[in-house]
Amino acid sequence: MICSRYAAPVLALLCVALVPTIIHQYLGLTVEDGRKAGAVGWQLAGLSGRATPRAPGGISAAYQSHDWIERRFSGAEGQVTLFVARSFDAKRLYHHPENTVLHGTTLESSGTRHLPPRPDVPVHVLASSPGSGSDLALYALLYDTQFVENPYVFQARTSWKLLVAPRRPMTLFLVHDASNPPDTPLERTLAIRVLHEAIERFTSQRSSTGP
């Protein structure tokens, strides 16, 4: 039994603990910014795009995504696949986002790079291990108006705010080139050109929540 003199503080703590549950599970409060994944368009880096035949159910469930696209862009220079997904469950996107999209492709992390023409965008690099293939995957994460370099630092900085505030969407941009020419500098790859142009197209949309 709780002593009566502790009843009020305990009740106050319980009420505080219930706030995140009420906001996210019962009310489901979110902030829509009016941006759409499909705004990246069908022409990127001089390549023409077409939708892939991927079934929508698996992606929607894996990423809890309310808005996503996957398009294959091809031309004389080669072919790359662009995946863009938006979700109010940020962890679904930043925790090994390649596992679902590139299931069956073995890649190793090669760190994070800042490359022209968008040095403000941290690009996460994944590639085949030497001698095992020529796959290259690049991805970037956008939360609200800020690009995320370290997801775990992001989580630490925003965890308390995310508990009590309506959720905002995170956006994942992922590009995969299954036949990246060896020894090509990353800043000159087709994948980075498609990634940067997709980001430019997406961020050029006016946000309904601010600049």
Q: How would you summarize this macromolecular structure in one to three sentences?
A:
The chain is α+β, with helices and mostly antiparallel strands.
Spatial separation of the terminal alpha carbons: 54 Å
Which consecutive residue ranges, at least 5 long each, have pLDDT under 50? 10-27
Number of helices: 6
Q: Which of globular, elongated, flat, extended, rod-shaped describes the shape?
A: globular
Class by SSE composition:
alpha+beta
Q: How many domains in all?
A: 2
**Strand count:** 9
How would you sum up the major sheet?
Answer: 9 strands, antiparallel
Radius of gyration: 20 Å
Q: Report the portion of residues in β strands.
A: 25-35%
The averaged pLDDT comes out at 85
Helix content: 25-40%
SSE sequence, one letter per element: HEEHEEHHEEEEHEH
Q: What features would you describe in this structure?
A:
This protein has 211 residues and is α+β, with helices and mostly antiparallel strands. The protein folds into two domains: 1-30; 31-203, no CATH class. The chain is built from six helices and nine strands. The chain has helices at residues 4-26, 56-63, 90-94, 98-101, 151-164, 190-203, and strands at residues 43-44, 47-51, 65-75, 78-87, 108-114, 122-127, 136-143, 146-147, 170-177. Strands 1, 2, 3, 4, 5, 6, 7, 8 and 9 form a nine-stranded antiparallel β-sheet that branches. The radius of gyration is 20 Å and the shape is globular. The model is unreliable at 10-27 (pLDDT under 50).
